[in-house]
Write a structure and sequence with these properties.
The protein is 52% helix and 7% strand. The protein has 153 residues and is mainly alpha-helical. It has a two-stranded parallel sheet. Helix 2 crosses helix 3.
Length: 153
């Protein structure tokens, strides 16, 4: 990321498995933790991405089962079992079917990023290397976390 001059903000909840050694030199990565008990409200994955992914997976699974049933040569044959490899392929296909619109909408619903930040980035056609914008985003996130602590029910 350093060579590509990309700046990254890593948003994490406070799960024990997410403990990070922040003393390591992460020059282009800033780690921010979501406030306690806010993951289901603030995390974009919980605002529609996981739901869409699971729906896509179930759709693929049902289609594959129907196709397998139609391929049976006679009624006495058993349906083939789904292997781990099959499941991995279904996961990859399901993720490909989660639309950019769903992801953007989930970020908007989470309220973590100001709407103009999302729209500006889309209009520019990709990542912005403008340090002022990155600093402003980092400040917005920090301010949001502190003020949202008092707004969560």
């Amino acid at each position: 990321m350093r060579l590509a001059k990309r700046k990254i903000i890593l948003l994490m909840d406070n799960a024990r498995c997410h403990e990070v050694d922040l003393t390591e030199d992460l020059s282009n990565v800033r780690v921010h933790f979501l406030p306690l008990n806010t993951t289901s409200v603030l995390q974009p994955l919980d605002q529609g991405i996981i739901y869409s992914f699971k729906a896509q997976y179930r759709k693929i699974l049902c289609k594959e089962k129907i196709l397998a049933y139609e391929r049976l040569s006679n009624e006495n044959d058993d349906l083939p079992q789904i292997t781990i490899y099959d499941a991995i392929q279904f996961v990859a296909r399901a993720w490909e079917n989660v639309t950019q619109r769903t992801i953007c909408h989930s970020w908007e619903r989470s309220g973590i990023l100001p709407l103009h930040q999302l729209n500006d980035n889309e209009e520019q056609g990709g990542d912005s290397n403008n340090c002022d914008e990155e600093q402003q985003l980092e400040n917005d996130l920090t301010n949001y976390f502190f003020t949202s602590l008092f707004l969560i029910r």
